[in-house]
Write a structure and sequence with these properties.
This protein folds into two domains: 5-35, no CATH class; 60-260, Up-down Bundle (Calcium-transporting ATPase, transmembrane domain), CATH 1.20.1110. Helices cover 65% and strands 2% of the residues. It contains ten helices and two strands. It has helices at 8-13, 25-30, 41-81, 89-99, 101-107, 131-158, 163-181, 201-219, 221-227, 234-260; strands at 18-20, 33-35. It has a two-stranded parallel sheet.
Length: 262
């Protein structure tokens, strides 16, 4: 930051040279940004807004990649084991694009977290997904995938429920898990019970919309034919909800370990 002729070398060398509107002509010429309101407080507001946008981008990528790779884990593992496919391509697309599409969009407008300006700066060469988030992507993908496989195998091989019912159960597990753990993906610094779940009303509506889309694919007759699903009982849904809570519990444990070793 600078406004005089003597600041020109620093303004040229900086990653982002900033000056005010009433600075010298030479300073304004070499600067990357000119503050038209002549108020350096604007810089703080811009930095805070930028960090908020970057935070939300990380949240979306963490959730999006975890959700997408979970389906890949299910398919690859079932092929390796020689099992029938627990999920059809249409079912995976429905989860990724429709049921979970609403939460993706809602995460982009998450309110800025407190204390953004007190954090250490992010290096210009730092990756969007750091090691913690990459680890979480792997953990969530594998865990959700294996739990979906376990639900499918329990019904298909142990109870002999039939392929269509077993696939429907796996479809419900994978679609529901992501609608649960989206709330844990919002912050790595705060556990879910210390965060305000209702700070983003759009996310609550998005999760509700995702649930409605998931139920539509399972209970509405025309969609049952498209996705090859059958209705589930209340007891089945209870087990599905247990799996969703288990996923949240697992993620919160990892987040707590991350914060312990800071």
């Amino acid at each position: 930051m600078g406004d005089g002729v003597n600041d020109v070398p620093a303004l040229k060398r900086a990653d982002i040279g900033i000056t005010v509107d009433n600075a010298s002509d030479l300073a304004r010429e070499v600067a990357d940004l000119v503050l038209l309101d002549n108020n350096f407080q604007t810089i703080l507001s811009a930095v805070e807004e930028g960090r908020g946008i970057f935070d939300n981008l990380r949240k979306v990528l963490l959730y999006l990649l975890s959700d997408s790779f979970a389906g890949i884990v299910v398919i690859v593992a079932s092929i390796f084991l020689g099992w029938p496919l627990p999920l059809l391509a249409a079912q995976i697309l429905w989860i990724n694009l429709i049921s979970d599409g609403f939460p993706y969009m809602a995460l982009t407008i998450e309110p800025k977290e407190e204390g953004l300006l007190t954090r250490k700066p992010i290096g210009k060469n730092d990756p969007i997904l750091d090691n913690k988030r990459l680890f979480l992507v792997g953990l969530i993908s594998v865990s959700a995938g294996l739990l979906t496989l376990a639900g499918f195998a329990y019904h298909y091989y142990f109870l002999g429920s039939g392929l269509i019912f077993s696939r429907t159960f796996a479809f419900a597990i994978l679609g529901t898990c992501s609608l649960f753990y989206v709330f844990s993906c919002r912050s790595l610094e705060k556990p879910i019970w210390k965060d305000n779940l209702f700070k983003n009303p759009a996310l609550i509506l998005a999760v509700g919309g995702g649930w409605l889309m998931q139920l539509t694919a399972i209970y509405i007759s025309p969609f049952q034919k498209i996705f090859e699903t059958v209705p589930l009982s209340l007891l089945d849904w209870l087990w599905v909800l247990v799996v969703g809570v288990l996923m949240v519990f697992l993620i919160e444990i990892i987040k707590a370990l991350f914060n312990m070793v800071k």
